[in-house]
Amino acid sequence: MGTKQKNHFKKILLQLKSELGADIDKTVHNMQDEATVFADPNDRASQESDMALELRNRDRERKLIRKINQTMARIESGDYGYCDTCGIEIGLKRLEARPTASLCIDCKTLDEMREKQMAK
Questions:
Q1: How far apart are CA 81 and CA 10, in angstroms?
Q2: Which CATH class is domain 1-80?
Q3: From CA 103, how far away is CA 33, in angstroms rounded?
């Protein structure tokens, strides 16, 4: 992978990380603003459910930020764009669709099939 392509993916990853960080900050401010104690149990339950969903989403975003940081380190070390399992080059279309991909499409498909088999 050339320098131009690496810089392209760095730019995409940094933009995504910035957007996620802004979303997390926005959620914190919204939760602080909406921290109202409702007298009605239904309203309180609804608020708690909304907050739980929001926190679950932010946790997923936090994990994605960690994966973005790992991907940035892979770019710096020269390992970016190669499958962790088999070592072949990951297609550019796959990297465009999921810049944090660390497995080629074949290895990812096998991995997902194993997950399904273990879940049954």
A1: 12
A2: mainly alpha
A3: 41
